[in-house]
Amino acid sequence: MKLGKIDEARQVLSWIRKPEEVDDELTSIQEMAEVESEASKNTTWGSLLEGRYRKLVIAGIGVAAFQQFQGANAIFYYIPLIVEKATGQAASDALMWPIIQGIILVAGSLLFLVIAEKFNRRTLLMVGGTVMGLSFIFPALINSFMDAHPMMIVVFLCIYVAFYAVTWAPLTWVLVGELFPLAIRGRGSGLASSFNWIGSFAVGLLFPIMTASMPQEAVFAIFGVICLLGVAFIRFAVPETRGRSLEEIEVLGAGESPAEVSGKPVTNR
């Protein structure tokens, strides 16, 4: 729409909307694009640090960064090597595990579609982050008291992936899309995405270095602590966006604390 490809946009909408709904939605999208474009003309990168936006920018960047620094990509990149180190099975014989992880991710994403509007964003992220953190920490705790089965860590990693797929994987980008007011949405979303990719690069680079210098369970325990820090960040720094308009969310960023607002009833959109 922003590129003036109205006919292409109408064709795409016709695939997912009833014929009588296409023109109304097309008009709505055009109006929203014009409002966003006009609003962004009056802002700069420095606007992200203004008082009314600062909390929302910190929340959006923090959620995007925590999604990666929680260690999900360490599993996705290195699962055959993780299984090899845990069980002694050759990495070339553990290639089924990426397929299993993929199936869990798809199933989790489908489940998210069912529950997305039934629970608050913060609730899902805090529950997911807590289970993910404990899934990383428990293997280290158990191994410190007894010799557990080598596959134990792999089972806990599957639990981690399941909750990640239902909560942090999709909800990060839902929140990033909902947190930023129109005036800073482009710059804010771009900055959040940049921190997300920085986290992905850092985890992918550091994980093999860390596992070479300390037990694998200890490395995942560190990621587990980061998961729990992410839960604390959601609790104290991220406002609830479900059922709230852009104007209401901007008010949260300008003054009232997320902790206070989270206790108020949230209506469905």
UniProtKB/TrEMBL annotation:
The lineage of its organism: Bacteria, Bacillati, Bacillota, Bacilli, Lactobacillales. Pfam families: Sugar_tr. It is found in: Cell membrane. InterPro entries: MFS_dom, MFS_sugar_transport-like, MFS_Sugar_Transporters, MFS_trans_sf, Sugar/inositol_transpt. The keyword Transport applies. The chain crosses the membrane at residues 56-79, 99-116, 123-146, 152-176, 188-212, 218-238. One of its GO terms (molecular function) is carbohydrate:proton symporter activity. It comes from the Bacteria. This is Major facilitator superfamily (MFS) profile domain-containing protein. Signal peptide: none annotated. It is a multi-pass membrane protein. It comes from Weissella cibaria. Coiled coil: none annotated. Residues 1-242 form the Major facilitator superfamily (MFS) profile domain. Belongs to the major facilitator superfamily. Sugar transporter (TC 2.A.1.1) family. Keywords: Membrane, Transmembrane, Transmembrane helix, Transport. GO terms for cellular component: plasma membrane.
